[in-house]
Amino acid sequence: MTKKLLILGSLFLLLFTVGCAGQGARTDELLAQDYRQMSDQELLTYYYRINDQIARVEREGRGTSVG
Predict the structure, then answer these.
(1) The whole model's pTM is what?
(2) Residue 64 has what DSSP assignment?
(3) Which listed residue, 4, 6, 14, 16, has the most CB atoms within 10 A of its CB?
(4) H/E/C letters for each residue in 12-40?
(5) Residue-wise over 6-30: b if at least 16 C-beta within 10 A, else e?
(6) Which stretch of 4-8, 17-21, 43-47, 60-64 has the lowest confidence by average pLDDT?
(7) What angle do CA 27, 1, 30 make, to 5 degrees?
(8) How far is CA 43 from CA 39, 40, 55, 60, in A?
(9) Residue 54: enclosing H or E segment and its boundaries?
(10) End-to-end C-alpha distance for the chain, whole angstroms
């Protein structure tokens, strides 16, 4: 249980950082979900969706340059 909470806490921290970068509705939707009410299968699906969103944001960020 503690390991699960640590993983979810880390994921939320990453998503919060991504959300602060202005990444729209999909990130907001993920953050609005209550992971505490999810079954193990739902948590696994949620984990994959978060990873996909982080990868999407990273890809979009590579196309942006300053200077």
Answers:
(1) 0.55
(2) -
(3) 14
(4) HHHHHHHHHCCCHHHHHHHHHCCHHHCCH
(5) eebeebeeebeebbeeebeeebeeb
(6) 17-21
(7) 10
(8) 6, 5, 18, 26
(9) helix 40-62
(10) 46
